[in-house]
């Protein structure tokens, strides 16, 4: 939510009030999500079925939130860079 984003910014030490920037961005983010949902991911045979979605070298990266994401992300980027 917007409130959560503002809380994260405050916790991270943001020096200014970001509420206007966040609320101004909501329409753009919603429009981008709506535009992509159901569309094919360029260079793949997959369709955007959720957002946010991260694609690394044509492969959808699965966010698991199980403590392995950072290491798996780094490995996927390293593998893509090596290709």
Number of domain units: 2
Q: In whole angstroms, how far apart are the ends?
A: 38 Å
Number of strands: 2
Name the shape in a single word: extended
> Hey, roughly how much beta strand do the residues contain?
5-15%
> What pattern of helices and strands is seen along the backbone?
HHEEH
Rounded to an integer, what's the Rg over CA atoms?
16 Å
- Main sheet specs: 2 strands, antiparallel
Oligomer: single chain
Count of alpha/pi helices: 3
Arithmetic mean pLDDT: 91
- The strand line-up of the biggest sheet is 1-2
Describe this protein's structure.
The chain is mainly alpha-helical and 83 residues long. The chain is 51% helix and 7% strand. The protein is built from three helices and two strands. Strand 1 and strand 2 (59-61) form a beta hairpin. The longest helix is centred in the first third of the chain and has 18 residues, at 19-36. The chain is extended and about 40 Å long.
